[in-house]
Structures are given as structure tokens and as C-alpha cells.
Write a structure and sequence with these properties.
Layout: H1 14-21, H2 24-28, H3 34-49, H4 53-66, H5 71-83, H6 87-100, H7 104-116, H8 120-133, H9 138-150, H10 154-167, H11 172-184, H12 188-201, H13 206-218, H14 222-235, H15 240-252, H16 256-269, H17 274-284, H18 292-309, E1 327-333, H19 340-349, E2 357-363, H20 370-375, E3 381-384, H21 390-399, E4 404-407, H22 417-420, E5 427-430, E6 445-449, E7 464-468, H23 488-492, E8 496-499, H24 508-520, E9 525-529, H25 536-547, E10 556-559, H26 564-570, E11 576-578, H27 587-594, E12 599-602, H28 607-619, E13 625-626, H29 629-641, H30 643-658, H31 665-698
Parallel strand pairs: 1-2, 1-4, 2-3, 4-5, 5-6, 6-7, 8-9, 8-11, 9-10, 11-12, 12-13
């Protein structure tokens, strides 16, 4: 979107005034006649478009000092203030200009400002006001389509863009917005055609190159996506989101250092691009060469920045009697669908004691599927936060009376950690979707178990640790049941290793370790299966990485994504699954076990790298946890030659998994209910303690003993973690 100059109102003042506009100092010396004010405005707009903020602001202010009711100066000064950070003050000036002169261009610009603030409902209204005044306003039709898309109304978005193109078939921006509407509606072919058309009209259209890259990335054509993002950046190197997008596809191809560089470049260009900050934090988890202290420090910087930008909401002090009342627990996630979060959540929420806890979903994106349909009935309400800014979202949650708000994303896609910084609920928790500190001090607890939240690693978190007694995960077995086949080695005589994790987890250290395993187990082979291998270029690069360690590519099978049933059936071609390090599998590990395939993992030194330990200990396979790289290779060799052991595991591992706490949904739900109740009681007790101390300072008697520990008999509470 572009901010339109008010060219309908500014006439051609001739060559003399055009020249004077380039020299604002000469204009300022003049008396504020109508001619000089117009020239000053043109000079201000020139500075504004060139991002010379101080110069533009000074000129706007000089005009307004002489002419406080100058609508154009108010309007563009307001837009400038919005661009430089004081959104509320800027919007008030824009509104004032509209009251003075309610024209189509002002409304269109106002809509652009609101769209950038994710206030899509208001933006849509502004664009419609523009079109009511000027029905043939092409840019407003196109911008309305963009706002409707952001609001999730894809059909109306397509219609609005089509209206723009009916008026101006060669309007590249409308083709670009149409492509985005098709892409978000799932029509990738139409999106590709729209972006291609936009680029045929404007080959130097950086945003269209970027958006074409989005489609290629969605289709796992990551090499083509990389080319698109690089072209976009070459055209407009100063747009942070393009560097962020490039980082994503570099990461997916295993170019981890380059990906981190792209994320850092995005942050340097836009310190408030939260997606880049979260992507960098996620990325650092994949890189064993990065000191853990650096990751923790980066997370703290993220959290401190969000807290500084938020205004934490207050909550009514609870009464002592509130400790036992029914709790309202909200889950915030963009992954309540066919996703690891959905797979680990589905059976649990069906077992929650609804007499004690009512669940409310606050979803951060609109995509739904069959898993979503199964999850929805277990929530008393289902709200979408997509399109709401942080303050609006936080106030909605507080108004709904949520007692405990649970973040299920951490720094993964569609997270709303910046909203948590507003403290919309009195108790806030991070669980399930992430594996490290969020860095956000407004989140009170991180929920885990004794394996992932080890006492000596307390300094890794800004949150307090709360440990569930068994596992912090509960798996929902897939349906329909996939039958188990014979062990591959029983027919081929050679061991087949496998890993179906995301390619990003296969850092150089993992490739080197697995090459050692393949060298140590003669005739063995390795199946790698992940969506990135849909791209032949990525297959070639990955083969070369193993070849550099002396592994013939004939020993590798690299396969792309499949529907879940086919993916699970592929485990019948695997004897032993290899877990990457330091980022092990989660749902992939449990799926392998469910298919009768044991998983070899490595002991870690932080929450993330303890996940495999947690799963295997809970299932009763601690012998499959290696102490270090040498032990990993030694265990791989020993297990590969233990044919009887593997045969017995294949026959009984699924039942062993199903009988373990990892699949005991009623037991897990009781533990989760107890955790929520314990957190809430701690909050009430802390509030009562503060009240007692306040009364004591005021000299008022209190029935509360400020020295009593109200939670001395509550289990599994680790206390506050030192900063």
C-alpha cells in the first residue's frame, strides 16, 4: 500500500513554486501567504517521502502554527507521527483533518494507517468511506481487498481486488493484493498467476517477488523461494520482513548461520519485527555452536522489550474463598489443528474435569481442519485474535475473566508473546509448544516435568518451573490404526536407520554423527523424510553434506512429505530411528515408538535437548539414551546387532507406549487440573499475603498470618527461579 498525496487538492503552482519547494529555507522566510503555504507543504511532502522526518515535521508544524486548520498539513503531519511511533496522537490529527475535509484520499490514507496497526475492522470502514466518496478510486478498492484479506474475508478480498482491476487492468498493486487473497484462501495456482502478472507489469516490484516467494515456500519449493526473496531484497534492501522471509527458507535448507544472519539483519532494520526476533530465538536452538548463555540473553532482551512496550493490565484482588472456585483457563495458540500441539492436546482436554476447569480457546490464526473440529467441543468458547492488536486482544481476554492464560506457542509461528506482556490474565503459563524460556517476565510459569525442568538448570528461565509428576506430554494415538509390518532387517539383512524430523534439526554436527553411525554399521542405510525433500535441489545439497563425510548417496533415501497415514506407514521400513541433537523429535519420536520403532537419543543440557530423555524415560526405554556422541555410536552399533531385542521391541513397543503415562489421558488430565489449581492457589495466597502486609503497614489488624506458608503441602512446585 502507498500513502497517497492529496493530489486532487494540490494544484500546479508553476515552475517557480516547484523550484522553491526544493529549498524550504527560502520558503520559511516568506510570510505565510496561500502560495508560500502550498510551497511549504510540497517541501514537507518531499522530505516526508524521503524519510527526512525532522525536516518534514518542522515544516508541517510551521504551517500549522500559521494555519491551525490547514487540513492537508494536519493530515500528513498526523501520518508522519503515526510512522514515527506515537500512534494515538497521529491518528487524532488524521481524524481532525477528516473532520475538516472528509475526502476520499484522507479516508484511504487513514485506512492504510489502521491496516498497519492491524485494526482491520476500522480500516475496512475507512476504505469504504473513501469509496462512498469516490467509487472509481482504484487504490482504495485494492487496499480494501488487502484489509479484507487480513481480516480473513478472502472472498470479499478477491472481489475488491477484482473491482480495482476492472477499473485499471494494468494496476500491478491490485494484482499483487489479489495474489495474496488467493494465497491465503489456499488457491496457490491462482496466486502464482496473479503475482506473475504483477511482475510482468512491474519487473522491479519487490513486494510481488517477495509474495511469489511466499507461495513457493508454502509449496516446499525452497530454492525458488530463496531466489524470489533475494531478488526482492536486491530491489528493496531496507524492508525487514523480506530478510526475515529469506532467513526462514535458508533455515529450512539447513543453512543455519546464513539464516541467523538474515534474522539479525531484519531486526537491525526493524527492532519491533517480532517474527524476526522469535525466528532468531527459535533458530539459535538449532545451533550447537551458539553458547546457551547467548540464547538466554537474547530471550531476556526480547522479553524486556515487550514489557517496556506494554502497559500491564491490573486485576481485581482475589478473596481467600476464590482459591477453590471453578477456574477459567484460556489456551492461546495458532496450532489447534493437525499439528504436534493438537496431537498432544486432543485426548487431554477431553478428560479435563469441567466441574473444576472451563477451557476457552484464543486462536491466533484462522486455519481449521478435522483436528480443530474435534477439539472445539471441549472449549466453552472459541475466539480468534487474528487481526487484533496486542492491547485490544489483552483487554478482550481480561474482560472475559480468564484466570489462567496458557501460551502454547513460545517463539514458534503465530505466537502472541507480545500480548502476554500486557498481563491479560492474573496467572500466565508457557506449555507444550516451546522448549525454552520465552524471556517474557509477565509469564509466571513454565510447565514441564522432572526430566526437562532440572533443578540445576533453573537459571535458564525467567519463568517459575512447575513440574508435572509424570510427563509434560500426553500423546493422542492416531486413527485409523496403522498395522505394523515386519522389521526391514529381517528381510534385507541390513539395518535401516531413519529420521522424519524437520531438516533444520540436521545441523552439521548431526550429519557428522550419523555418518559415524553409518560407517560403524556395515551395509546400513538411512531414510530421511521431511517436506523439504520435495525440492530436488535440497535433496542434492543434503546428499553432498553426507558425501563430505564419506557416505555414498546410495545409502541415503531422501523423501518428501506425505499424508500422516502414509508417513506413519513409512516407519515399517525403519529398524531404528535416530534422534537429532540438540533439537530432538517430539511427536516424531512418539510416532516412531507407536509404530514399533525404538529411538536412539542423546542426553542434553537444557529443556530442549532433554525432550527425548523425557519421552524415553516415561515409556520405559532409558537404555536408549546415550550419554554423548561416542556412546551414541556405540549404542547404535550394539542395538543394530541385537536382532532379538529389536524383534521383541517391534512386537510389543506400541502396547508399551499405550500403557505408559505418555498415553494415559485421564491421569494426565488429573495432573494438569492439579497444576492449574496449585498455580491459582499460589496466586490467591500471594494476594492475601500482600494484603496482610499492606494492612500491617497501615496499622490495621489482620486475620492472616503473614509468616504462614500457604502452599507448604502443595507438591511439584519448584519456587521462583533466580533471574
Amino acid at each position: 500500500m502507498k500513502i497517497a498525496d492529496d493530489d486532487q487538492r494540490a494544484g500546479d503552482n508553476g515552475d517557480r513554486d516547484a523550484q522553491r519547494a526544493l529549498h524550504p529555507a527560502a520558503v520559511i522566510a516568506d510570510a505565510p501567504s496561500a502560495v508560500s503555504v502550498d510551497a511549504m507543504l510540497q517541501a514537507a511532502l518531499t522530505h516526508h517521502s524521503a524519510a527526512r522526518v525532522a525536516e518534514a515535521s518542522a515544516l508541517y508544524q510551521q504551517i500549522l502554527t500559521a494555519r491551525p486548520d490547514h487540513a492537508d498539513a494536519l493530515h500528513f503531519a498526523g501520518l508522519l507521527v503515526c510512522e514515527t511511533g506515537d500512534i494515538a496522537a497521529g491518528i487524532e490529527r488524521v481524524k481532525q483533518s477528516i473532520r475538516l475535509h472528509p475526502n476520499a484520499i484522507y479516508y484511504n490514507n487513514f485506512g492504510n494507517t489502521l491496516t498497519r496497526q492491524r485494526r482491520y475492522t476500522e480500516a475496512i470502514a475507512a476504505y469504504r468511506e473513501a469509496l462512498a466518496r469516490k467509487p472509481d478510486y482504484v487504490e482504495a478498492h485494492s487496499n480494501l481487498g488487502n484489509a479484507l484479506r487480513e481480516a480473513g474475508d478472502y472472498v470479499a478480498a478477491v472481489d475488491s481486488c477484482a473491482n480495482a482491476l476492472a477499473l485499471a487492468p494494468d494496476y500491478a498493486e491490485a494484482w499483487n493484493n489479489l495474489g495474496n487473497a488467493f494465497k491465503d484462501d489456499g488457491n496457490d495456482d491462482a496466486a502464482l498467476k496473479s503475482f506473475t502478472k504483477a511482475l510482468s507489469l512491474r519487473p522491479d516490484y519487490a513486494e510481488a517477488h517477495n509474495n511469489l516467494g511466499n507461495v513457493y515456500e508454502k509449496q516446499s519449493r525452497v530454492a525458488e523461494a530463496t531466489d524470489c526473496y533475494r531478488r526482492a531484497i536486491a530491489l528493496k534492501p531496507g524492508i525487514a520482513s523480506m530478510h526475515n522471509n529469506l532467513g526462514n527458507v535458508l533455515r529450512d535448507q539447513g543453512f543455519l548461520v546464513d539464516a541467523a544472519t538474515s534474522f539479525r539483519q531484519a531486526i537491525a532494520l526493524d527492532a519491533d519485527l517480532l517474527a524476526a526476533r522469535s525466528n532468531l530465538l527459535l533458530q539459535l536452538n538449532f545451533m550447537p555452536q551458539v553458547p546457551h548463555a547467548e540464547q538466554i540473553a537474547e530471550a531476556r532482551r526480547f522479553g524486556e522489550r515487550q514489557i517496556a512496550r506494554a502497559r500491564q493490565l491490573t486485576h481485581a484482588a482475589p478473596r481467600a474463598a476464590d482459591a477453590g472456585r471453578r477456574l477459567k483457563v484460556g489456551f492461546v495458540s495458532g496450532d489447534l489443528k493437525a499439528h504436534p500441539v493438537g496431537f498432544f492436546l486432543e485426548n487431554v482436554i477431553a478428560q479435563i474435569d469441567t466441574a473444576q476447569v472451563e477451557l476457552v480457546a484464543w486462536v491466533t490464526q484462522r486455519q481449521e481442519d478435522a483436528t480443530t473440529a474435534r477439539l472445539k467441543p471441549h472449549f466453552v468458547a472459541w475466539h480468534c485474535l487474528d487481526g487484533s492488536d496486542d492491547e485490544t486482544a489483552a483487554r478482550r481476554i481480561r474482560a472475559d475473566g480468564i484466570d489462567i492464560l496458557v501460551d502454547l506457542s513460545g517463539h514458534t509461528t503465530h505466537n502472541r508473546l507480545s500480548m502476554f506482556a500486557w498481563k491479560p490474565a492474573p496467572v500466565q503459563v508457557s506449555w507444550l509448544g516451546y522448549f525454552a524460556t520465552t524471556g517474557v517476565g509477565a509469564i509466571d510459569y513454565i510447565l514441564g516435568d522432572r526430566y526437562v525442568l532440572q533443578a540445576h538448570e533453573a537459571s535458564h528461565f525467567v519463568e517459575r518451573a512447575w513440574r508435572l509428576p509424570d510427563s509434560y506430554l500426553c500423546f493422542t494415538p492416531p486413527t485409523p490404526e496403522i498395522p505394523l509390518g515386519p522389521r526391514p532387517m529381517s528381510t534385507s539383512g541390513a539395518v535401516t536407520f531413519g529420521c522424519f524430523n524437520h531438516l533444520v534439526k540436521l545441523n552439521d554436527a548431526v550429519v557428522a554423527l550419523w555418518a559415524r553411525v553409518l560407517h560403524a554399521v556395515p551395509d546400513s542405510c538411512l531414510i530421511l523424510k521431511t517436506k523439504q525433500f520435495d525440492d530436488p535441489v535440497v535433496q542434492h545439497v543434503t546428499g553432498a553434506r553426507f558425501a563430505a563425510h564419506g557416505i555414498d548417496t546410495a545409502r541415503l533415501t531422501l523423501e518428501g512429505q506425505s499424508p500422516r497415514g502414509e508417513l506413519l506407514a513409512t516407519y515399517n521400513r525403519v529398524d531404528i530411528a535416530l534422534d537429532p541433537y540438540p533439537y530432538p523429535g517430539g511427536v516424531t519420536t512418539v510416532e516412531a515408538l507407536w509404530m514399533g520403532v525404538p529411538v536412539l537419543t542423546r542426553r542434553g543440557d537444557r529443556f530442549l535437548s532433554h525432550v527425548g530423555e523425557s519421552i524415553l524415560n516415561t515409556v520405559g526405554l532409558p537404555q536408549w539414551i546415550a550419554a554423548d556422541d561416542d556412546d551414541y555410536v556405540a549404542k547404535a552399533v550394539a542395538f543394530a546387532t541385537g536382532h532379538d531385542h529389536l524383534k521383541n521391541l517391534k512386537a510389543g513397543l506400541r502396547q508399551q507406549l499405550l500403557a505408559s503415562p505418555l498415553c494415559d489421558a485421564p491421569r494426565f488430565a488429573r495432573n494438569l487440573d492439579a497444576a492449574f489449581r496449585g498455580m491459582w492457589r499460589q496466586y490467591v495466597a500471594d494476594a492475601q499475603m500482600r494484603e496482610a502486609h499492606s494492612l500491617a503497614r497501615a496499622g490495621t489488624p489482620s486475620a492472616i498470618d503473614p509468616h504462614r506458608n500457604p502452599l507448604e503441602n502443595v507438591p511439584n512446585h519448584a519456587g521462583r527461579i533466580a533471574p
